[in-house]
Amino acid sequence: MLQINQIFQMLEEHEKKFNRSFSLIPSENVLSPLARLAFLSDSFSRYFYDEKNFFRYWRFEGGSLIGRVQQEILIPLLQKVGRARHVNVRPVSGLSAMTQVLSAFSGEEATLFSIPVANGGHPETSYLAERFGYRVIGVPFSDWAHVDLEALGRLVEQKHPSLVYLDHSTFLFPLELPPLVHTIREATKAAVHIHVDSSHINGLIWGGELPNPLESGADSYGGSTHKTFPGPHKAVLFTNNDDISDKFIEAGVRITSHHHTAEMVALAISLVEFVECGGAIYAAQVCSNAIALAKHLRERGFRISGEPWGFTKNHQVWIEPEGATAPVLASKLFEAGLVVNPIDPLPSLNRPGLRLGVNEATRLGLKASDMEMLSEFFAALLLENRPVQEVSLKVGEFRRLFRPEFCYQGEIFEAKLAGLCSVFEDDRRRLAFKQRGECIT
Predict the structure, then answer these.
(1) 86 located within any domain
(2) pTM for this entry
């Protein structure tokens, strides 16, 4: 029992910490109360392979009932919000989706173009791609934020990439896809697949704040579902091309065996809530909150990246550190209940900086006017050197005012929880019988 007690003590400590903290990490978000119920269900223990469609019989029939959620609800909803004919839900994370795409287009002497880490590319793309045998070449930029289209055209003409994997993860200004795609297509007559890793901005794309990559000329796009989209830790891939869809299916089946049924159910719940509870409003609020936070931080004396171009056009805000290193500042902020992301390098600085995201704060119901209070906390701690405990108390008091929004709550949540608990009642009864030494009939 000692270790069990320790585990639950740590769980309680974590819950208490985040009940009085704001996570401003761009890669994280909070599930709705309703979506969390998926992880209490028996679906967590079941495989769902949709295998009857392929083999005409079930080998793992345990998931056949809950698998209807994927077939009848999840896939149609993803097709709707993602505006794509084909959806692949096999990946279990953003990196899993990356692996699936890289596998689908790998081959002898394959060349891949990706975003350099110095310009905000994902740090694992080159590592994984090289493992698959790709020769990796960085997309050229004219500055830290914008692609040099002329240089890109020349490079494509010389190197003939088979896959262009646009893996922006640390960025303030999304790539302008139509001219980029046009440049690539015009520079080569060879077949080239263009994929957009949209992990950070899926919620903004599906909410209509950013363009759909397929409609901007990409062959496929996708990524994780727990950043600007407030879903579970999972990922999806989209395409309108039948052959590409088949490649994703073949790669996914071999790379990811079980794609986590409870996460699939939680994703379906999150999508229903996104569609029915103001997902488009949430996406718009994320973008306005980010600009508001950047402006308020700048007004209080922080150096904020991207000011000449309007600070940001997504959920991210970058602080250029002064007086201490980014990790030291981040740890101090964490103590006060402000959880941020020290990133090395921050593209605008080519050195470590602080990467913030307002996606989870927006999910908790904060509006643009609330960004002023958050900026005051940052200033009190880092510029005025107020005691950590003093700032922490104020952050905690402010945090108690908010809870997840843009989702079902109240009577609907209570009713669904009661329904699940009625199913759990049999387990409770069996435990009571066992404790009394009685037979279960």
Answers:
(1) yes
(2) 0.94
Sheet holding 135-138, edge to edge: 86-88, 235-239, 220-224, 193-197, 163-166, 111-114, 135-138
- Write out the H or E segment, with its range, that includes residue 6: helix 2-19
Task: Establish if 8 belongs to a structural domain.
Answer: no
Q: Are 119 and 232 members of one domain?
A: yes
Smallest CA-to-CA distance from 321 within 275, 353, 363, 276 is with: 353
Residue 63 tokens read as 């998931």
Q: Which two tokens stand for residue 70?
A: 């994927």
Q: CB neighbours of 96 closer than 8 A, spacing ≥ 6?
A: 235, 255, 256
What is the secondary structure of 68-126 as a DSSP string?
Answer: HIIIIIIHHHHHHHHT-SEEE---SSHHHHHHHHHHHT--TT-EEEE--GGGTB-TTHH
Query: Which residue segment(s) compose the domain that 79 sits in?
Result: 38-276
- Cα–Cα nearest to 349, from 300, 305, 298: 305
Element (H, E) at 419: helix 410-436
| Tokens 């999508």, located at residue | 271
Q: What percent of the chain has pLDDT over 90?
A: 82
Q: What is the pLDDT of residues 153-198, one digit of tens each?
A: 999 999 999 999 999 999 999 999 999 999 999 999 889 999 999 9
User: Which helix (H) or strand (E) covers residue 289, if one does?
Assistant: helix 279-299
CA end-to-end distance (rounded Å), the chain: 30
Domain count along the chain:
3
CA distance 20 to 41: 28
- In a domain, residue 17? The reply is no
Residue entry with tokens 């949540």: 413
Cis peptide before 345 (omega within 30 of 0): yes
226: which 2 tokens? 């727990």
Do 81 and 170 share a domain, yes or no? Answer: yes
Candidates 197, 140, 142, 150; CA nearest to 174 is 197
189 class by beta-carbon count within 10 Å (0-12 exposed, 13-18 middle, 19+ buried): exposed
Are residues 98 and 166 in contact, defined by beta-carbon separation less than 8 angstroms?
no
Segment 82-117, tens digit of pLDDT: 999 999 999 999 999 999 999 999 987 899 999 999
Tell me the DSSP string of 367-411: -GGGHHHHHHHHIIIIIS---HHHHHHHHHHHHTT----SS--HH
Residue whose structure tokens are 């769902």 = 48
Q: What is the distance, to the nearest Å, from the Cα of residue 312 to the centroid of all Cα atoms in its chain?
A: 18
Same domain, 116 and 222: yes
Which element (helix H / strand E) includes 344?
strand 341-346
